[in-house]
Amino acid sequence: MVRSEIISKLSEKIHRKLKKSDLDKILQILINSIVEGISNNKSTEIRSFGRFSIKKLKAKISRDPRTGEKIDVPEKISIAFKMAKELKRKVNEKELIN
Predict the structure, then answer these.
(1) What pLDDT does residue 72 have?
(2) What are the backbone dihedrals phi and psi of residue 12, each rounded to the nearest 5 degrees, phi first?
């Protein structure tokens, strides 16, 4: 599902009381809040959905598959998402709300 589909779905669910441009702004604020929290080394949790947090990946030595040459890969920061128990249960029972 892409951003425009999410906004259309939200619009349908609330019976078009808000303009799609307003819903887009709300979605952008939500995304910005998650990104801001992660960039400040804080995890962001949305109850019954999940938690976004930072995961540090250690530096390592890899190999180039074409040449076999060793390559030093520096330490990286990645984003981790842990699904909430309620969402996990709904996905496994296929009870997602349409």
Answers:
(1) 93
(2) -65, -40
Residue type, 31: I
Specify the pTM: 0.69
CA distances to 17, 27, 91, 93 from 96, rounded to whole Å, are 24, 20, 6, 8
Structure letter (DSSP) for residue 94: T
Give the chain's residues under pLDDT 50.
none
| pLDDT for the residue numbered 92 | 84
Give one DSSP letter per residue of 23-79, joined into a string.
HHHHHHHHHHHHHHHHHTT--EEETTTEEEEEEEEPPEEEE-TTT--EEEE--EEEE
- In the block, tokens 């949305």 appear at 46
Do you know the residue count of the chain?
98
